């Protein structure tokens, strides 16, 4: 999949969305002088991009996070810096967005600007999450995000995992689900994500065509 200047990543919490977002920003840095990553997921506040701010900025990636920490507000404030990132055609950027109704409202607040630029809206799918184990459930999530945000999902990302216990079978199961969703919606599979140790074991040609090996930046070594 050809990189767009602006990559927006959404999906259910626990799906591997933020891990993919961070790895995507690092990948973009190999091809772009200026890369930004914006943490606008105010729903899941546990694994936050901003917690890796020092490391990301040490390798030349600027981190912008939401000015709002509470999820009780009706509509979160979006920092002016994010608006600048969206408008700045000389900067490649990744926006990490929450995947529920609140996250979709965040996305809706700057969708008019997004429509004016070169962007992808990617939806991550983890077939091991109870909320997204069927094509019907995934499509319902996608429709809700599209309806609220007034933006269309342009690509699917298979992020099926069980953290460090992830196997090739998990990736295969996620691929099967993503493929089913793709056939129904006509939304292409953009990436098949796997941690590097598992990616090296994959033999499925369809998966290997879209394979995106990642490192686990958002989980410390002591975490299971």
Q: Give the CA-CA distance, first to last residue.
A: 32 Å
Q: Care to count the β-strands?
A: 8
Helical amount among residues, as a percent range? 25-40%
Reported for the largest beta sheet, the result is: 8 strands, parallel
Give a description of the structure.
With about 220 residues, the chain is of the alpha/beta class. Helix content is about 35%, strand content about 20%. The chain contains 9 helices and 8 strands. The chain has helices at about 15-30, 55-60, 80-85, 100-110, 110-115, 135-150, 170-185, 195-200, 205-210; strands at about 5-10, 35-40, 60-65, 90-95, 120-125, 155-160, 190-195, 210-215. Strands 3-2-4-1-5-6-7-8 form an 8-stranded parallel sheet, with helices on both faces. β2, α2 and β3 form a beta-alpha-beta unit. α4 (about 100-110) runs parallel beside α6 and α6 (about 135-150) packs across α7 (about 170-185). It is globular. The two termini are about 30 Å apart. Mean pLDDT is about 85; it is low at about 70-75.
């Amino acid at each position: 999949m050809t990189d767009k200047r602006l990559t927006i990543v959404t999906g259910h919490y626990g799906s591997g969305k933020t891990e993919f977002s961070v790895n995507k920003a690092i990948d973009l840095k190999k091809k772009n002088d200026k890369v930004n990553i914006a943490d606008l997921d105010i729903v899941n506040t546990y694994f936050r991009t901003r917690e890796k701010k020092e490391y990301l900025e040490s390798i030349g990636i600027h981190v912008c996070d939401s000015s709002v920490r509470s999820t009780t507000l009706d509509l979160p404030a979006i920092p002016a810096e994010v608006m600048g990132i969206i408008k700045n055609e000389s900067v490649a950027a990744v926006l990490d967005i929450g995947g529920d109704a609140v996250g979709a409202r965040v996305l809706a607040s700057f969708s008019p600007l997004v429509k004016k630029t070169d962007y992808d809206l990617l939806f991550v799918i983890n077939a091991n999450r109870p909320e997204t184990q069927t094509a019907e459930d995934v499509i319902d999530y996608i429709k809700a995000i599209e309806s609220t945000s007034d933006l269309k999902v342009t690509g699917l990302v298979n992020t099926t995992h069980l953290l460090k216990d992830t196997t090739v079978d998990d990736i295969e199961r996620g691929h099967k689900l993503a493929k089913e969703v793709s056939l129904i919606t006509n939304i292409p599979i953009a990436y098949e994500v796997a941690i590097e140790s598992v990616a090296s074991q994959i033999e499925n040609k369809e998966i290997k065509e879209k394979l995106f090996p990642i490192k686990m930046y958002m989980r410390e070594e002591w975490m299971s």
